[in-house]
């Protein structure tokens, strides 16, 4: 019991220190914006002006915490993490979301946090850890019937299988991803079509690769 309490206090202290280091002084003109306005402004500045993006993310998170809104707090941590995609602190933010939302999970969380952890490990080519987190993301997404996250997990796992030379497994997953994107008219449909065609090509199923390539060319026009 004492050990568990110590670990909880240690984790809480780490999160508080992390947040203190993250928050910036927020001008009234930014602090008064609505969540969707802060969200849009963050991504509008993320690449060209990360310092300004930092202020928008800080304002978003501060607003969420003031309103004690778990959903928006989780999204605030995602914005914060997006400024550190290649750094290990990215995982700290995702773990914060998981601890916040795991007991009272929603349709999006903690599934999305596990998905983003998987993406982090995939970027680092740490495939076992990536697969573990994608699997957890799928499990939570299935519990709350979130097909979009399941789709993203399947596609990500397909890429890992392809990288490892398991092309039949990858083909099955990319086919499922493409069919879902087609049915739901998702913007990434053409991208999914390319992955499917490329996998047919790697398996030397050239007729199938040509067939799906022709569909892709027609749709892109």
What do you see in this structure?
The protein is mostly helical and 221 residues long. Helices cover 78% and strands 0% of the residues. The chain has twelve helices and no strands. It has helices at residues 2-22, 28-31, 35-45, 50-66, 70-82, 89-101, 111-123, 127-143, 147-163, 167-184, 189-202, 206-220. Helix 4 (50-66) runs antiparallel to helix 5 (70-82).
Q: Let me know the average pLDDT.
A: 89
Low-confidence stretches: 1-17
Judged by helices, strands and strand pairing, the structural class is mainly alpha
Task: Tell me roughly what share of residues is in helical segments.
Answer: over 70%
Terminal Cα separation, in Å?
Answer: 64 Å
Helices and strands, in order, run as HHHHHHHHHHHH
> Which percent band covers the strand fraction?
under 5%
Largest sheet: none
3D shape: elongated
Strand tally? 0
Work out the helix count.
12
Determine Rg (CA atoms, Å).
20 Å
